[in-house]
Design brief:
By secondary structure, the protein is an alpha+beta fold. The protein has 2 helices and 7 strands, in the order E-E-H-E-E-E-H-E-E. The strands form 2 sheets. Strands 5-4-3-7-6 form a 5-stranded antiparallel beta sheet. Strand 6 and strand 7 form a beta hairpin. The chain starts with a strand and ends with a strand.
Length: 86
């Protein structure tokens, strides 16, 4: 997934949507906390491998194109995690 992201030291990273759609697996998530969006990648043993801030536009495009399903968090009221469906 790292090859799909244009990294910046501070701020929002740009995502190549077409590459990200092809690379997205069950190990990837989009996390939203209020108005901030993050692209997360996990290892097969459930350890976080990557976390980058992405724009709302890129996040919504990925959610729409991949058909990700939102899950609310009861503990963090303002948090939503978008996961791929099988």
């Amino acid at each position: 997934m790292k090859e799909c992201i244009e990294f910046k030291e501070i701020g929002v990273c740009k995502v190549d949507i077409d590459k990200a759609v092809r690379k997205f697996t069950l190990l990837h998530r989009i996390f939203q906390y209020r108005d901030d969006f993050y692209l997360l990648e996990y290892t097969p043993k459930c350890k976080r491998k990557l976390r980058v801030s992405i724009s709302e536009k890129d996040a919504m495009e990925l959610i729409k194109r991949l058909g990700l399903k939102p899950f609310k968090n009861d503990f963090f009221v303002n948090a939503v995690i978008y996961v791929p469906t099988t």
